């Protein structure tokens, strides 16, 4: 089965509900139409002006039938969650009225709608900056238990007949953390493994902690955090036979079997990695864009991870199909 069909089929079984804070964007409305018509998910659109959204959709020949459009009224939100949010903001020095005013904005309202248990995922970022999406998600949603940093991954879908990669791989972190240290890299790996299992529950996971060195082939202080992160990640997954971790590994040693065998003959991961953990944002961001532009991969993401509930930060260059597929991914359990 095609990987896109696989994702959509998994999401269809969940019968989840997604909220889109950017209901004023044509791409988002098109994705909402696709999700609804194909019975992938239920969709909620928060609106400051319902008539305006309907007009935008009509001008783009988008059918909003079956889509729930709601005014951003706090009666839709859980009062206890509102109080927790307001108390947290006022404890940071914000005036109560200013904290409540945030919840009248589409991004914060949508996050609180999710936090209130009214839907299963919030998908934004097609228009809003990453900083805005992350700020709202941290303030409203919070991080998952045991995870200290938010990160992201890209689902990298190879073109047909690619000479090396035959199945999807995940690149992480390519969108959030500029220079994570060892514990941060461990958390990034853990979060990515969790998401890989949602998408491909029967596959063995091979995590490569990337660097410019393979097993001591170079000597630099820069390698210390990767070596330590490898140790921490291995310890975390100790006893889990479906998750293998190794590092430090160069990219070619991680994904090309012949090179992996030559450079790291005793590695269980070398040559067959399907999660690639980059040492910093420079490497990760450059890496996924090279794979996308030169290698012909489709890069779905960045998909935010490490939060206690599913929130996506789309690329502002996302197409309607990207939003459609990422929304499906966010609904997987």
Q: What name does CATH use for the topology of the largest domain?
A: Rossmann fold
The number of helical elements comes to: 13
Number of domains: 2
Query: Order of strands side by side in the largest beta sheet?
Result: 8-7-9-6-5-10
Summarize the amount of helix as a percent range.
Answer: 40-55%
What is the structural class? alpha/beta
| Number of beta-strand segments | 11
Roughly what is the average pLDDT, rounded to an integer? Answer: 93
Based on the structure given, which CATH architecture of the largest domain is correct?
A: 3-Layer(aba) Sandwich
Kindly estimate the percentage of residues that lie in beta strands according to DSSP. Answer: 15-25%
Distance between the terminal alpha carbons, to the nearest Å? 20 Å
Explain what the structure shows:
This protein has two domains: 3-142 and 314-330, Rossmann fold (3-Layer(aba) Sandwich); 151-298, Isocitrate/Isopropylmalate dehydrogenase-like (Rossmann fold, 3-Layer(aba) Sandwich), CATH 3.40.50. 43% of the residues lie in helices and 17% in strands. The chain has helices at residues 3-14, 26-37, 50-59, 79-91, 96-102, 106-115, 130-140, 182-199, 224-236, 251-255, 257-263, 281-293, 320-330; strands at residues 17-19, 42-47, 68-71, 121-124, 151-157, 169-172, 205-210, 243-249, 275-277, 298-305, 311-313. The strands form two sheets. The protein has a six-stranded mixed sheet, sandwiched between helices. A five-stranded parallel sheet has the order 3-2-1-4-11, sandwiched between helices. α9 (224-236) links the parallel β7 and β8. α2 packs across α13 and α8 (182-199) crosses α9. The longest helix has 18 residues, at 182-199. The chain starts with a helix and ends with a helix.
């Amino acid at each position: 089965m095609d990987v896109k069909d696989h994702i959509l089929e998994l999401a269809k079984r969940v019968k989840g509900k997604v909220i889109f804070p950017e209901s004023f964007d044509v791409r988002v409305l098109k994705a909402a139409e696709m999700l609804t018509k194909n019975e992938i998910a239920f969709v909620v659109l928060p609106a400051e002006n319902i008539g305006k959204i309907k007009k935008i959709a009509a001008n783009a020949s988008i059918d909003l039938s079956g889509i729930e459009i709601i005014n951003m009224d706090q009666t839709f939100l859980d009062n206890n969650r509102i109080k927790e949010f307001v108390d947290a903001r006022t404890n940071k020095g914000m005036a109560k009225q200013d904290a409540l005013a945030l919840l009248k904005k589409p991004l914060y309202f949508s996050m609180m709608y999710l936090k209130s248990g009214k839907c299963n995922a919030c998908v934004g970022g097609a228009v809003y900056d990453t900083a805005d999406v992350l700020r709202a998600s941290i303030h409203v949603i919070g991080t998952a238990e045991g995870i200290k940093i938010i990160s992201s991954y890209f689902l990298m879908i190879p073109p047909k007949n690619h000479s090396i990669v035959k199945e999807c791989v995940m690149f992480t972190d390519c969108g959030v953390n500029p220079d994570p240290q060892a514990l941060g890299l461990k958390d990034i790996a853990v979060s990515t493994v969790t998401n890989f299992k949602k998408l491909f529950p029967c596959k063995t996971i091979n995590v490569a902690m990337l660097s410019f060195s393979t097993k001591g082939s170079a000597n630099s202080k820069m390698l210390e955090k990767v070596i330590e992160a490898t140790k921490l990640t291995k310890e975390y997954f100790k006893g889990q036979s479906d998750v293998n971790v190794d590092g430090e590994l160069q990219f070619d040693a991680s994904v090309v079997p012949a090179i992996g065998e030559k450079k790291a003959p005793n590695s269980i991961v070398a040559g067959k990695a399907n999660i690639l953990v980059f040492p910093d944002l420079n490497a990760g961001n450059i890496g996924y864009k090279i794979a996308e532009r030169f290698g012909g991969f489709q890069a779905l993401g960045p998909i935010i991870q490490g939060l206690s509930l599913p929130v996506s930060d789309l690329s502002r260059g996302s197409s309607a199909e990207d939003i459609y597929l990422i929304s499906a991914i966010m609904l997987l359990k």
